[in-house]
Specification:
Blueprint (H helix, E strand, L loop, with lengths): L4 E6 L4 H15 L9 H4 L1 E7 L2 E12 L2 E9 L8 H15 L4 E7 L3 H6 L3 E9 L2 E9 L1
Parallel strand pairs: 4-5
Antiparallel strand pairs: 1-2, 2-3, 3-4, 5-7, 6-7
Length: 142
């Protein structure tokens, strides 16, 4: 059995590792554009590596004092529904706690809300469109 390695990298350097997976899932599978933004530079990125391949990742940044915004949480198609997404979210939330967070927030595609609820997030506000896709704000109070 191969072990999954969890890595944490700060800043844009993480894109060398996480970028291809994000493009594969968010742009090619889901049709989003402009996957990368200036927030990659100020984010802490979490990656799950198996056999020298990134199979899941996510990022977070401090949006407001003591509030961390999680996002770009992604799992390679062949590794979904195996707990890897939850590992990414839990690692990000724990890192936020270590940095003094009182709350974590994220913008979930509506089809993923049940997943984030299983990670302890609750829905906040109304559904809205982001690049034509329905999204829901979700919060995790610490």
């Amino acid at each position: 059995m191969n072990l999954i390695n969890i890595q944490v990298i700060e800043g844009k350097a993480a894109l060398e590792y996480t970028g291809p997976l994000r493009v594969e899932v968010f742009e090619k599978e889901q049709g989003f554009v402009d996957e990368f933004d200036e927030l990659d530079e100020v984010s802490v990125h979490v990656m799950l590596e198996l056999d020298n391949s990134i199979i899941a990742s996510g990022r977070m940044y401090e949006e407001y004092p003591h509030q961390y915004h999680l996002g770009r949480i992604v799992v390679k198609r062949s590794y979904r529904s195996q707990g890897h997404g939850k590992s990414v979210v839990e690692t990000l939330v724990n890192l936020a706690k270590e940095k003094g967070a009182h709350q974590c927030v994220l913008s979930s595609q509506t089809h993923a809300c049940a997943f984030y609820e299983s990670c302890g997030f609750i829905k906040e506000g109304d559904v809205y469109l982001e690049q034509g896709q329905p999204h829901q704000w979700m919060i995790y109070n610490i």
